[in-house]
Amino acid sequence: MGRAAVLTGIGSAVPDRVVTNDAFAARMDTSDEWIRSRTGIRERRLVEPGTATSDLAVLAGSRAMKSAGVADVDAVVLATTTPDHPCPATAPTVASRLGLGAVAAYDVAAVCSGFLYGLASAAGMIALGTAERVLVIAAEAFSTIIDPDDRATAPIFGDGAGAVVLAAGEQSQRGALLGFDLGSDGALADLIIVPAGGSRMKTGASPSDHFFTMRGQAVFKHAVLRMAESSRTVLARTGWPVDAVDWLVGHQANVRILRAVADQLGLPREKAFVNVERFGNTAAASIPIALDDAVAAGLVNPGDRVLLTAFGGGASWGAVTLEWPDPA
Ligand code: ACO
């Protein structure tokens, strides 16, 4: 690895509209008790009709740049499952609306693992010398692909965006991304899928073909297994024993998954940061939203050793390590 990618700023943005579990219980056969006990979720933020992924991405991106104390970057990488349009990518729109000029801008599609794939991609550009500074955003208007009447998915997901600025620096600096592990298994592609709208099936036989479906139990098992495995791999690459980790900031899919990953790693459960209760599963956006939330709450502090890990559609997964940086 050449030059290190150093995290120098972070920001997030969620829609104002809070939707409680009771709002779902009022319109479908579910309950606050079921949703809380199975997922840990109490409420989530959902966009109003007309709000798109880029709207959230611009807000989170500008907050991350402000936190980093910078007015420009050389590239924008946007991880999303819900681009504004099937074509073109959403990142150039975001870059333009942020006033960043003619910078490189592209989307990364790895569903809930997208932020970690985005970090790796941005770190690669920095290592190559293609960019000095990259804005990595993960943003989702996830509710736009959810069937609002499907109790198996509608209460689980939320909308939001998180972003970080990565800058060229030294591996020894706080904030340097230290280790990466990424993986996928396309044989599991049908566990999490929107069947129609792509080149395989342009228009579905029924409207439900255009909505997100998930085989929850199978996803649960693979998520725990792969997040734990990927975490072990990245810890070994970083040279950290498990007990060196101060915070596990995992993809906020389900509090039971986060606890199970901590248990499998032999990490005390209180080291697994959880905010799924307030935001639901925001897919690619969940890790940067959680990180920003944990820092704002005074939990993650400069010098803390942080382990990020995610599992999502594809199937795809990953893990990244870093020591939390000093504020800009
Ligand atoms: N309210 C009430 N009952 C429900 C609801 C609901 N909202 N949803 C499902 N049920 C019912 C089911 O129909 C089933 O009923 P049955 O026993 O009569 O068949 C029962 O509850 C149990 O369903 P399970 O799916 O077995 O419930 P489980 O405990 O597995 O929880 C959940 C479901 C929350 C989806 C869980 O499996 C999970 O979190 N999976 C992982 C999700 C995940 O990690 N996603 C990350 C990737 S997502 C991405 O990449 C975009």
Automatic annotation (TrEMBL):
Enzyme class: transferase
Transmembrane parts of this sequence: none
SUPFAM superfamilies linked: Thiolase-like
MF annotations from Gene Ontology: 3-oxoacyl-[acyl-carrier-protein] synthase activity; beta-ketoacyl-acyl-carrier-protein synthase III activity
Catalytic activity as recorded in UniProt: 3-methylbutanoyl-CoA + malonyl-[ACP] + H(+) = 5-methyl-3-oxohexanoyl-[ACP] + CO2 + CoA; malonyl-[ACP] + acetyl-CoA + H(+) = 3-oxobutanoyl-[ACP] + CO2 + CoA; (2S)-2-methylbutanoyl-CoA + malonyl-[ACP] + H(+) = (4S)-4-methyl-3-oxohexanoyl-[ACP] + CO2 + CoA; 2-methylpropanoyl-CoA + malonyl-[ACP] + H(+) = 4-methyl-3-oxopentanoyl-[ACP] + CO2 + CoA
Domain Beta-ketoacyl-[acyl-carrier-protein] synthase III N-terminal as annotated: residue spans: 106-186
Keyword field contains Ion transport: no
Any one Gene Ontology cellular component term annotated for this protein: cytoplasm
Family: Belongs to the thiolase-like superfamily. FabH family.
Protein's job: Catalyzes the condensation reaction of fatty acid synthesis by the addition to an acyl acceptor of two carbons from malonyl-ACP. Catalyzes the first condensation reaction which initiates fatty acid synthesis and may therefore play a role in governing the total rate of fatty acid production. Possesses both acetoacetyl-ACP synthase and acetyl transacylase activities. Its substrate specificity determines the biosynthesis of branched-chain and/or straight-chain of fatty acids.
The protein's assembly and partners: Homodimer.
Domain notes: The last Arg residue of the ACP-binding site is essential for the weak association between ACP/AcpP and FabH.
Protein name: Beta-ketoacyl-[acyl-carrier-protein] synthase III
Organism: Actinokineospora fastidiosa
